[in-house]
Design goal:
221 residues; 8 strands; five-stranded parallel beta sheet; Rossmann fold
Length: 221
């Protein structure tokens, strides 16, 4: 049985993670940060001393890595064997290299398959860059969160991360494998003009309203 998925996409520092966590909490869904999966593989790539843009090295890594995404409470835990990869996903060097790693088609295919399998376990709020367009394009609940570059840059600064957001946006939007795009049927939400709580409330209301009109419907309290 495939459980319902709420798709929340958007560029870096758009606020989609905060909104997605709030929506998952309110609906008692499992929160899935797909970006953390790419960051975990970026860490493993760097740890192995591989070139982040090497497709051949990524193929080698995927052939031997013991990678798991496990549901733990209302979130997922990322593990290599028994090692928790979570603490490594926000390292500065990982942040700097994640875009070229996430552009590798072999990795995207591997992780998309894994993300889709999570639908067999529980209702999900899944956030990333290709959830509504690729991973769960059949979901009726799609939202694209964005903000102006100045707002996003200020958020990154407060997070203590250094990003060239313009360069990252260009790479994410122009890659051949699942580029960052707003799905045609995704609602556009501006996190620069609305805070995370109000956007989450808007999504929750929309899901609850529309789920009563469709079959099958998400189970919401």
């Amino acid at each position: 049985m495939l459980h319902p998925v709420i798709c929340i996409d958007g560029p870096a520092a758009s606020g989609k993670s905060t909104v997605a966590r709030l929506v998952a909490h309110d609906l008692h869904y499992v929160y899935v940060d797909t970006g953390a999966m790419y960051r975990a593989f970026t860490f493993l790539t760097l740890e192995a001393g591989h070139d982040p843009s090497s497709r051949s090295r990524m193929k080698q890594l995927l052939e031997k890595v013991d990678f798991h995404a496990e549901i733990a409470g209302q979130e997922i835990a990322l593990r290599q064997g028994k090692r928790d990869l979570g603490p490594h996903t926000r390292l500065p060097e990982v942040n700097a290299a994640v875009s070229p790693v996430s552009a590798l088609p072999e990795l995207r295919e591997y992780l998309v398959n894994l993300q889709r399998k999570l639908r067999l376990s529980a209702p999900l709020v899944m956030e990333g860059r290709d959830i509504g367009t690729v991973v769960c394009s059949d979901s009726p609940f799609k939202y694209f969160i964005d903000a102006c570059p100045t707002v996003r840059a200020e958020r990154r600064k407060k997070q203590g991360e250094k990003d060239n957001l313009a360069a990252r946006d260009k790479l994410d939007s122009s890659r051949s494998a699942a580029p960052l795009l707003r799905a045609a049927d995704a609602q556009l939400l501006d996190s620069g003009k609305n805070d995370a709580r109000s956007l989450a409330d808007q999504i929750v209301r929309d899901v609850r309203t529309r789920s009563t009109r469709s079959t099958p419907a998400p189970t919401v309290p």
